[in-house]
Design goal:
277 residues; alpha+beta; AhpC/TSA; 9 helices; disulfide oxidoreductase activity; Thioredoxin_ResA/DsbE_sf
Amino acid sequence: MPAVSLGPFVLDSHTFMVFLFLLTSIVMAMVLERRYQVRVEGAIWLMFISALVVGRLVFVWQYWDAFQTKPWSMLDIRDGGLNGTAAVVTGVLIGLIRYSRFAPVQRNVYIASIAVGAVAWSLSYSYLSLSHEGLQQRWPSERSFVHLAADKATPKRLSDYEGKPTVLNLWATWCPPCQREMPVLEQAQHSYPEVNIVLANQQENATTVEAYLEKQGLELDQVLLDPDGELMAFAQSKGLPTTLFLDANGQVVDIRMGEVSAATLEAKLQLLLEPTH
């Protein structure tokens, strides 16, 4: 699903929906607390934080090998790495425990607050899903881009990558998060030959891109040039890096706004490859 822009801030769609759920639940709790003179806000925070911590810990455990080279990165939740099932189960369990200890009026306020958050989440999910469908309908599968290789005269169409799952990373040499994830994508090209790992540079020329790759000692295949930033526009990307995940039929199945870590990329690739097994 597309990213969400809030003024100067850009959030991954999944992150936006989670925080929208939290925000609306907390606001409703504060309103009802004043009216009924009860306290439930702390319980909602406890449920949310517990779910976040457990979801992250399970994710780190699942992809421990990817964190071993940079152990401190397990604390960096900006990579979006979270085990959703563990987070939801934890949140529900904590919620039920707190619910069982509340007085009747508190229970009603608690349920009402969470219900409002759930409605907000559902509405945002529906809206973003429709936006994602619109993106797929206008996806430029037949658009040609310059392939940064020995023979630059040969254009590359996005449809040329159909037949295998594809990771399409939109990046630029001036972008610090893009720079940090380059080695991760380079390693993925070697580790996942069954997936097209494509890097589409945005709005820079061949000389700039080649000089950067050479300076950093990066040996990347499938580097495309998108001098007009068309892919950013089509993906409704509000910033870089943006990574799109396409199935073997060329359908966009997921979009990640922001830097990907080795663990996050591995998790996304496993999901992308699931239908092929």
